[in-house]
Amino acid sequence: MVSGRPDDTLPRLPDQTESPPVVAWCRDLPVRYDADVAVVGGGIAGVSAACAAARSGASVILVERFGVTGGVLTTGGVANFCGQMEGQGEVFDAILADLRAFRALGEKGQGAQPVDRPTVFHYEILAVVLQELLLRRGVKLLLHTRFIDARVTAGRITECVVCGMSGPEALRARQFIDCSGESVLARAAGCATLKGSERSVYQLPMSMMYFVRHIAPEAVVEHLPAGWFEPVRDRNELPMTSIWPDGPGGNAIKIKVPMYDSTDTESLTAAEIRGRRRMMEVMDYHQRIEKKSWRLDHCSPIIGIREGCRVAGDYVLTVDDCRAGRAFEDGVARGTFCLDGHKPDDDKRTYILPENELGIPPYQIPLRSLIARDLRNLMMAGRNLSADQLALSSARVATSGSMMGQAAGIAAAMAVTEGCDLRSLAPQAVRDEVTARGAWLEV
After folding, report:
1. Domain containing 253: what range?
2. What angle do CA 195, 199, 203 make, to 5 degrees?
3. What average pLDDT does the segment 26-30 reach?
4. Which of 130, 210, 240, 431 would bridge with 299, disulfide CB 3.0–4.6 Å?
5. Which of 273, 299, 325 is the last residue of a domain?
């Protein structure tokens, strides 16, 4: 029998009160890979960074822990673009064009949402689109490959250790870009990081995505067996639940899973367990109480993470920058989404800010927020950017993530071509190339 009270048995935040014992190990590794630019993490930011660097003529390797790229958009099942979709740059334009070629962008809603959703896409098709875009650009893909560690000499990352089915191997590069979401490369290299806020130690809450098919009412047989988990008795007990299209006869369901730490092994494990338990409880409620003729189709292999661990950069983008619609001399990307900061310590549809303060004008993201403060050749993009929690709640979305990735890829390749450190680049030269590739920076 499975306990219905996971909070009694599963850890949430890591316990750092005791220092664990340590072991030392040393091993010679083959330097199997060598590139101008290495990108760790194949979400939308990592894909965009790799594609942009490759277009600049750099040799590029992309390290991705799963068998597909796309991150939470594909493996996480979050099949919806947030923020302005136009003017994000040529990489994002190419992604949209390929999705449209497959007729995989825009879905008509089911049930309570029978309207066209032009921002919704087929996540399995997106995985194919991203894969083929990378291959067309000449990016070397290392799938099913995890980042393990980094070697730093004189303020520069010289190699990183990766591990796939061939075992641990070294990857050497001139420039590195961390798009892992949890800043795994930056943390291993000793960079300062940011997490949570002054108000709370908790990160922005995670969400679990699962998918249902509409079936004949008499075929619904998936109520919870007696003794399993905690059945939801009424709507007030539901966590925040969002429903959107998932093709003919189907819906995607997203539920909020707060108060876990995605940068800690045990806490992330607990979040995955809690998410699937809540999925079963919410699914049971929809079938038993609301009489939905739904059948569970599948659950995303990974929980959706909004905030992992941000890298401290040369500049920390703030919520005040977003509210002011601030422009920067070194602005290389743009945010347009609202301050989507859900309260991190409850599972309801509640926000950190009052709802009348969530809307913001377009704002710029500076190049300095994409350069790791503590190293000479490390950039970051996506939800790794240097920002406070509320600024991240807006800038973390896929559209802005792609813009940041494209800018980081351009800058990294430029540093390789010029044989210089990132801080020696002329910001205006990066901006000029970013806009030449179709990115709108006006605010």
Report:
1. 206-299
2. 35
3. 93
4. 210
5. 299
